[in-house]
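Deliverable D5.2: sample structural annotation.
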Amino acid sequence: MTEQRDEARAFAEAYTRCLPAVSGYLRRRVDGTAVEDLAADVFAIAWRKRAAVAPGEELPWLYRIASYVVANHRRRLATRASLAHLLIAPDSAPAADAFVDDTEPALAAAWAALRPRDREVLALAVLEGMPVAEIAVAAGSTPNAVSIRLHRAKKALAAALERERTAE
């Protein structure tokens, strides 16, 4: 019985510590009205699978769960839109890369030219401020593979930015 209380207390502490970061992650990827519900889904899944997380890796593990919740949410929206024959985008929130706006057209075009998985690894590193080891947990990969992906994504962004600036 005390073991269950200790487990519940540890989960409550992780929830309190990680909720703002998880909510921010979600807010940058979905419409703001869905953040609270999706955050609840993330933590419900985390509670059920709490034995799978290694101590100290709670936040990147929660980001990984959140990425699956966001993907499922977008699929549901797309399905509803197609069933209702609506001509709207599957999500109306700005993407994680909304920080790239029209004030820097070359950067915006270079960012758009990147592969989605390159944009995601860069967004986790830059927007979320995650170190490579945590990105690896969030991506379900190894730190070495993420380091290589991040390096290649940075090179691809630099090359695309150079192409955009020389085309101006």
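Annotation notes: Confidence is low (pLDDT under 50) at residues 85-94. The first helix runs from residue 2 to 27.
The annotation will be released with the project's public dataset once the embargo ends.
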